[in-house]
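SAMPLE LOG
Freezer: B-3
Tube label: C17
Construct: single chain, 265 aa
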Amino acid sequence: MTVLICAHNEESYIQKSLEGILLQSIPPARIILVADRCTDRTVQISRALLPKGSILVEKGRSLWKNSYAENLEIGRRDAIGELLAIIDADILVPSFFLERLSTFCDGWASVSALVRTDPRQGWLNRIVSFWERSYALAPMRREARGGARIVSLKALGEIGGFQDVMAPDTDLDIRLRQHGLRVRIDMALVALHLRRMSLARSVSYQIRAGRARRELGVSILRTFAHSIVRLRPFVLYGYVEESLRDRARGGGAHEGHNPEETLIP
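STRUCTURE (predicted):
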């Protein structure tokens, strides 16, 4: 099994995230960290913690429109084993994360943990953490939040890997289902989103989520219901904004590139 971490200026969180991975009851065969144009100490901290045999990719530029999706695809190229665990650099997983999800992968192409906002990171985090209970009320089917999952590398290869979209995790689930493969969320397994929230960041998250829904072809009715039931008005705003942008947006294919890769000795 391979663990893939994508990071962009995550010096405040990367140590805790990596420590959670290093304490797994079943250690991964390989850890890959893609450092996306980092200007802080993310690379230095990661290099000091990553075990022998890990791969550190220092990405200097992005050729895809959606850099996170590109990072996932870059990491996929060097993955080994049957399973790929995707853990965001600001997420802390419990020590049994890999063991539990790997046992569920028999018959499932992708299994996600339930990601919750860490309430210890301030008053807004506590509010967001409480509000996230409304996830159970999500209308017309719940989607995994992303950032803490295990996916079959074989299934991922069958659908052509990751695509250049704003929400590659949701896109992944949609395409796996379209190919007749099963995905699930383990509601009993919780991973913590460590990032300290702000009002500006919360609004930005909602707008981007709305734009991603439009890009993935989610219906306006489902988006409207989601916005009302879960009290996320800016999701609808982002959806409408992306609809207007579609009229002026041109398409285009993206070519790959060769970022610098370092094998940790």
